[in-house]
């Protein structure tokens, strides 16, 4: 009789996948926490059992069957979920006031390319093959942002003008249409007492333009346009 033990690979199946993005720039957000908030009773029983086994350490776990973090490419996924309806939530740990607390949720049912406002997603497997049609859940966090355009006295777009928040080191450059966007800025949680900043514009061949105080509130996009004057 052989004493060797035969090991078989455990195959996990992705059941739900998605991404977390900046709603203005569409850039991905790594490190976001995605959790399953509502789930079928069969899965809830499993989570309750694990919570009892791990005790106080359970809530401290970064990754688990019902929670995960987005990767550097903004993607996340959950594996081996039983059939049923699921609701997911997302949060940005350590983002401060750079984004809204509540993201917009968009789901894409299996076999479709169109996003839906449906917040619940259905996980279902083929009864014969066990294959799962994977639904997609995308989260879009509205950033605290400042945008606008820079033109000259002839109402022409000023390209590659530097738009900078004074004293913070945050800056960007205008595009070919004179538009700029400063996203993921620190704002104020209290709209009655916004963070106030001074914005300056520097462009070659033009006088420097400095704004009055501009209000920044958490999760809100503020528009501020500039008109610069040519240097004689």
Description:
The chain is mostly beta strands. The protein folds into 2 domains: 128 residues, Sandwich (Immunoglobulin-like); 84 residues, Carboxypeptidase-like, regulatory domain (Immunoglobulin-like). It contains 1 helix and 18 strands. A 4-stranded mixed β-sheet has the order 4-1-8-6, with no helix packed on it. Strands 3-2-5-7 form a 4-stranded antiparallel β-sheet, with no helix packed on it. Strands 9, 12, 17 and 18 form a 4-stranded mixed β-sheet that branches. A hairpin with a 6-residue loop joins strand 14 and strand 15. The longest helix is centred in the first third of the chain and has 14 residues. The radius of gyration is 24 Å and the shape is elongated.
Provide the β-strand percentage band: 35-45%
Instruction: Please tell me what the overall shape is.
Output: elongated
Low-confidence stretches: none
For CATH, the homologous superfamily of the largest domain is named as Carboxypeptidase-like, regulatory domain
Mean pLDDT: 88
Class per helix and strand makeup? mainly beta
What proportion of the residues is helical, as a percent range? under 10%
Q: Report the C-alpha radius of gyration, rounded.
A: 24 Å
Give the strand order, joined by hyphens, for the main sheet.
Answer: 4-1-8-6
The sequence of SSEs as H and E is: EEHEEEEEEEEEEEEEEEE
Largest sheet: 4 strands, mixed
Span of the ends, CA to CA: 97 Å
Count of helix runs: 1
Number of domains: 2
Describe the oligomeric state of these chains in a short phrase.
single chain
Count of β-strands:
18
CATH topology (fold) name of the largest domain: Immunoglobulin-like
